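DM from R.C. (forwarded with permission)

"hey, sorry to bug you on a friday — could you get me a structure for this? deadline for the figure draft is monday and I only need the backbone to look sensible"
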Amino acid sequence: MNYYYKTFLSTEIPNDLIYASFFFIDIVGLSNPILSTETQRTKIKILNELIYDCNTFVETPKNNLLILPTGDGMLIGFKNGLEQPLKLSIEFHKKLSIYNKNATGSEKIKTRIGCHIGHVFVVRDIYGNVNLWGPGAILSRRIMDMGDTDHILLSNEIVEDLFEISDDYKKFIHLLHNFGIKHGDNLLIYSAYGEGFGNSSLPKEKIKIKTKDVDIESNTICDRIVFDVIPKDTTGMTRFRRTYYFLNQSSEPVYEFATNFIANSKEELLGLNFKAYDEKDNELKISKVLASTPYSKKIIIKLLKPIFRGDSGKLLIIYDIKLTKNNFENIFTTDAQSFEINFKHYANIEFFPVLYYMDAEIGSKDIIEKSSEIRKGMFKELMWSRSHGLKIKDSIRLEW
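My reply, with the result:
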């Protein structure tokens, strides 16, 4: 391991533009003035040794690696694939956990990691040392900076490619939200965590979200919205389906659609993995996630083609959540002509659902009576509907 570490930096690196996947790590709190210089140096040495002992690093050919020490951490670029940064992150976390179990007090090492894909230029500084510069490296650092201790954060770009490789990644890569970075830009960020790696908590918002408001809410009106709520079992696992039939009433094309999600807990919100489809069953991608509170998200979905004035579209969203409380709440992100809620459950289980409609302007809260109740075999289906007075920012709440 030590021989590999000492000889690696002498490897010749091509002096041109390179596309790679990146792993950026630093030690949290290393600059704390209470730490002695010797303690700081020891932590850097141990960090290097743990990384250089990981199979993901060792088994990657040296000519496919780019590396840049940063004092309290390092940037590693992999030129031969995009899975390595996440694999290295997981492997490193498990090795670091073993080390920290045997360390005491200030000896323990806390880190954060950012992963991204992009281009860099390989250049040399004034002393002739190899340096990396470009969006691949810069954004990897920005993503890492958003994290707290133990976070493994990933850009939307690298996650989309990982999901194409294998659905297994969807089991432990979780959507967070947009974070603001320098120059008014923002990034859509994911978090990787599971048994022995990562941090399942939301990062503290040290960098304020600067995402510009989109004007799609006032440009769009829904002819009809259908909510399907299907409790799967008595543990709280519930399937949700939302179908939006919408119309562009603006002179400007609509490229995106906004919808809001409200959860009972941070855990529900973090576990909000869902899919969106258009009227032709094409899967759609998320372009932005705006977290207005720790318990709600506004999600912006990118349409495959623009919807022009007078044209209509359809959007279907499906997701499963293990509810901590038996309720569903929705805030309307567009005006709507009508909506209906279909609630399906096992007929042999006692449910007494109540639907409330809250008018945001006058502050009222009314109960909507059921429109129908049908027994179908072992299931019972209940339906509520309303076809007037549905305004943006009004909300509904189903309790059972």
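R.C.: lifesaver. The two ends are 59 Å apart (CA to CA).
me: no worries. The chain has a mean pLDDT of 88.
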